[in-house]
Amino acid sequence: MNSPVLLAVVGEAVAFEPLFVAARERGVRLGWLELDSAAFPPPTLAFAPLAGAFRAVAVGNRTSIAVKPMKGSPVLRDLLREHFLGADVVLIKGMDLFPKLTRGDTGWCLTESATVESRVTLEELFARLRKPAMRWGGPERDPR
After folding, report:
1. What is the pTM of this model?
2. CB of 58 within 8 A of CB of 44?
3. What CA–CA distance (Å, rounded) separates 125 from 10?
4. Boundaries of domain holding 104
5. For 64-108, how does the pLDDT look when each residue is reduced to its tens digit (9 = 90+)?
6. Helix H or strand E encompassing 31
7. What total of structural domains would you count in the chain?
């Protein structure tokens, strides 16, 4: 199984809606990961993990929420394995890494390194994301 492409992002998920729609249309499995999130679990799930439950899960009509206690700081590799197995691309909010994707007034900006930045259309972005060099896992892409 291939490692996903990781893209650092700034902003809320709603700003990336056109990217989510385009990914779905192309059959690209796109994930969203927020590190250092201020989100709190729903009150009905908050107590069980704090009391020692291995995990608490709530399932609704179209979504599920899982809450579990952590013993230490999150480890990116573990988060990817646990939550994003099979993902093609994971957008990560709250981590400074390359490549970075930002949305501007006129389109998308892909910053691949401190010296390589380009404005791209969604078509160009998806073409670039298919290249093996963008996959995470090599020493030059391993942020942790």
Report:
1. 0.84
2. yes
3. 17
4. 1-35+74-144
5. 999 988 888 889 999 999 999 999 999 999 998 889 999 988 889
6. strand 30-34
7. 2
